[in-house]
Write a structure and sequence with these properties.
The complex is a heterodimer. By secondary structure, chain A is an all-beta fold. Chain A is built from no helices and 11 strands. In chain A, the strands form 2 sheets. In chain A, strands 2, 4, 5, 6, 9, 10 and 11 form a 7-stranded mixed sheet that branches.
Chain lengths: ~110, ~110
């Protein structure tokens, strides 16, 4: 199993551009989440999904959209990039047993100029 | 509201010394608590979960509901333990939201 994969690894955007961060998992996990990691802030939840077709907002959802058309994929869309969205983005997935913890992807480092 | 506090941004110890990474939480219900670790150039990975009461890589963590703490301990630190450590909390039976502390960078010196 590849686990949780993310593409791209690095991305530079200009303010106002849009893009999609890709996330896929091959563990048949129902639950998937997107986090952003900023220096000194830890990880903050952006959006999450409890199954195909079901998504919900996390702590910092503004400026981001998600969809979950399949169990495997959970893309994160930046609608109009802003410098405040410069961050490292992590995708995670887990089984139905929350106590087992989450599996994280390698991250995407995004810079918005 | 769920909140996790890791009071130490940086912690430095010598090899063979005991280490304790502090984690305090705020949650009105019964929490599920985790420790995650991120080694240099690696992805974040689960280290411990309180519900299993396990010891991983010599680390243990006990949930103290009275003090609302979930400190991570190891009696003899090793250089390979150097990493970022994050404490995280999830509320039982409700929200999916997993709240992370800001992390503690542990450095184990030779």
């Amino acid at each position: 199993n590849a686990g949780v994969t993310q593409t791209p690894k690095f991305q530079v955007l200009k303010t106002g551009q849009s893009m999609t961060l890709q996330c896929a998992q091959d563990m048949n996990h129902e639950y998937m989440s997107w986090y952003r990691q900023d220096p000194g802030m830890g990880l903050r939840l952006i959006h999450y999904s409890v199954g195909a077709g079901i998504t919900d907002q996390g702590e910092v959802p503004n400026g981001y959209n998600v969809s979950r058309s399949t169990t495997e994929d959970f893309p994160l869309r930046l609608l109009s990039a802003a410098p405040s969205q410069t961050s490292v983005y992590f995708c995670a997935s887990r089984t139905g047993d929350r106590a087992r913890g989450q599996y994280f992807g390698p991250g995407t480092r995004l810079t918005v100029t | 509201a769920q909140r996790v506090t890791q009071p130490e941004k940086l912690l430095s110890v010598f090899k063979g010394a005991p280490v304790e990474l502090k984690c305090n939480y705020s949650y009105s219900g019964s929490p599920e608590l985790f420790w995650y670790v991120q080694y240099s150039r690696q992805r974040l990975q689960l280290l411990l979960r309180h519900i299993s009461r396990e010891s991983i890589k010599g680390f243990t963590a006990d949930l103290n509901k009275g003090e609302t703490s979930f400190h991570l301990k190891k009696p003899f630190a090793q250089e390979e333990d150097s990493a970022m450590y994050y404490c995280a909390l999830s509320g039982r039976g409700g929200s999916e939201k997993l709240v992370f502390g800001k992390g503690t960078k542990l450095t184990v010196n030779p």
